[in-house]
Model the fold of this input.
Amino acid sequence: MSDLVQVNNLCVDYITFGGRVRAVDDVSFSIKKGEILGLAGESGCGKSTIAFALMRLHRPPALISEGEILFDGKDILDFSDEELRKFRWADTSMVFQSAMSCLNPVKTIESQFYDIFEAHNVVSTKEEGAERAKELLQIVDIPPERLYDYPHQFSGGMRQRVVIAMALALKPKLLIMDEPTTALDVVVQREILQKVYELKEEFGFSVLFITHDLSLMVEFCDRIGIMYSGKLVEVAPSKEILGKPQHPYSFGLGNSFPTLHGELQEMIGIPGSPLDLNHVPDGCRFAERCFNASEQCRTDEPQLRNDEARGWVACHHPLAIDFRELQDAPCSELN
Amino acid sequence: MRYIFTRLGFYFLAFLFAVTINFFLPRMMPGDPISSFLGRLAQSGGQITPETIAALEALYGYSTSVPLWQQFIGYLQSIMVGEWGVSTRFFQPVIEVLGRGTQWTLLLVGGYLLISYTLTTFLGIYVAWKRGTWADSLITVGSVVISSIPAVVMALLLYFAFASNLGWFPTGYAYDPALDPAYTWEFVSSVLYHLALPMIAMVLLGMGNVMGMRSNMINQLGEDFIVMGWAKGVRDRKVMFSYGARNAILPMITSFAMSVGAIFGGSLIIEIIFNYPGLGQVMFQAMLARDYPLIQGYLLMMTIMVLSANFIADMLLFALDPRLRTALD
Amino acid sequence: MKFLKSLKAMFLSNPKASVGASMVLIIFVLCFGAPLFTDYEPNARIARPHQAPSADHIVGTTRMGRDVLSQTLYGGRTSIMVGFVAGGFVMLMAMVVGISAGYFGGWVDNILSFFTNMVMVIPSLPLMLVLAAFLDQVSPFVIAVIIGATSWPWGARVIRAQTLSIRNRDFIHAAEVMGERKRRMLFFEVMPNMMSILASCLIGTIIYAIMTEATLGFIGLGDPLSVTWGVMLYNAQQTSAIRIGAWWEILAPSVMLASLAIGLALINFSIDEVSNPKLRAQRIMAKFRREQKVEAKKKAAAIRNAGSEPMEAKA
Done:
């Protein structure tokens, strides 16, 4: 599989009265065609900022200060306003965190669909737009006659499916999902992810999936990147990230969630709280909270490197535990 | 539909409230209201004729033999059928005197609403879009400064400079008295010419709405559906109007309803200073002559106009906000 | 006090606030220190009528031969007092009605809100005119009371909305669960969180009251023997000051009225900017735009360099 998106050394700064705060620091990763990549991390770690930056939708006072975002080989940071406008939704679309508030409350679903078609010149009449919108609604199991309703007339789960239908309207190559299910209950959550998975299989787009729910992510994604305080600290196939975490933070994050399958285990959280981005230390950002930190970790910042044997991890002392081998051992022996 | 009826019911109660004030105020004054009126009238140099006394008695239904609640019912009845008493200054039915002024006030206030709300809405949208630029600072600070000038001061200064001193605008009347009212270009242009300076004063005083629209618009621009609009590739102009402004005008309509009383209050001062023959001018003359029936009639007329404006605002909201409309189904 | 600290920071960092505060301060000093700036009594006939400004009478004299400057300064005292008394009265009414409605909710809220809306749709200026007309002789203090009695609904509504939103925050629920008494909570939990909205409401009503006093005075409802800016304008209008070109008689009180109102409005505008988080966030926009330009320039330079490098490589 070849790369659809290649992000190189991306830095995003927030302008504040006290100076710039770097919310995303030197992040590189790629998304292959047809792949589902997950980004996980605590809130405020920069994962949503990356999602918005991929469509250059980051709102002021956020500013992309360095790096490149190659989409099919073209750097979208070089796009003119008009090129950017045409790129948005046609090539990359997005399902927002808050289905409740991302639909315009005073316009019907029909006219919000039509806005998409009109902006990208794909239909010539309103009727044609309505026809296509109805087909899309059917894909996400919403009765087509609801097309002429207003957003407030839908339930939360239905609204999220409407947004997904809109996201697929132009058959984009990449679908970004920014915590799409946090506001929904667990049953609806699964239904929606299942639907997206089926659609992905059918249409063959790539997905960037962002959440802080690691167990959900492991089931849904092909590969997972773990972020901490604006840095990408580990990228690995999703089966490995819980089973064979190498970065102590990934290890801690994996232990912070109950597994859906398997026996009851003791949950171990991560001590301390996320880093204050106004005061970034010299060494590893996670050193303060890390059970495995050494003197080197406090002075020398580890870089994300691809190790033949280990894969991508940014740590001086990667862990070497494999849960999959230890599956039968009691939990307490792990520490 | 229930929404509309609830509002109508509320307006009816509010009107009753104003009528009640009018009914009880003279009775709360010490002594017999009619003779105390006559005393005041004599004091302020008003003429006391038998008509005056008859008008007062007819208006207040005052009588010691009838219980208060019957007097109140009688008063209500006469108000409802348009018998608002007789002006002691003009010796004409109050409703006729008020009617003459109402047309000019409606012209002034209606024109003001049209011009001012169009102008300030667009300016507000523009500066919210361009927030943080020098144009934003200039327009916002400018509109705060201009709109906080008291109406009396604004009107006096404009009148002194442009009507009295420079003579660019007329110093009074709604149209050239030499012309006969008719739908001719000559007459209409004369009306517009006489309307211009009072209108400019009112529009300047109403510039504060720019701030209201600006902050509504800024609030809307932070909403997720705006970001989604951009994400969809919708053109900036369309996001600005169809996504941002379309939602930002809804609170503007509510604030219009809240401020319409103050707008009519402002027109009163403007009309007095520019000698514009609207309701304000009528009121001023009534005040000078202590023409109580006319003063009370003015309060009722103003209440009716404010309530109508509120009802129009309700209907507008009803039409523009689907959440309100479809909640009824 | 956190509120006082942020107030101080606001005046120091925000030019609009400091300009506004200086304007208000200057007017206060001029009016309340009037004997320092003028030797004349405000109501004494000290010169020939309608004298143009001269060294003796800096802003001329009135039709009655009174000194306009001393009238303006002494009159300002009354006007400002009326503004503050009426403003205080309005605030009191608005706070009692607004906070009780928002805090207690239920039928208390229903009744108070209904009453508030009712008074709000009765146009306040005509109502004031009717009241003043029946009371006939109205001293400045009575005018202040009339303004207070008719103008509180707007503030009550704003305060009610704010109380409601604070009341539903977690820390209030927490205090309630911990068994704090309702009255104590009102004063120690709800009120401190409303300081900025109360301050801006108070300033708003003071502006409104000063303007309204001028309006009522101008229409001729003020006591003609008292001296206020409104009564000065009334006298000027009645003696045809405009027609005979005695501009100083109009200009002096007008400038004072306008400056005071503008000064207070600028302070109010700055309070809004500081206390409304969405507007506050916008203040960063100016800085953001500068930084954005820097980035754009850097990028343009990088592209130029990138463009020239291959040429050098060829060479």
Remarks:
- Chain C has a mean pLDDT of 79.
- Chain C has 15 helices and no strands.
- Chain C touches chain B through 58 residues (CB under 8 Å).
- The two ends of chain C are 69 Å apart (CA to CA).
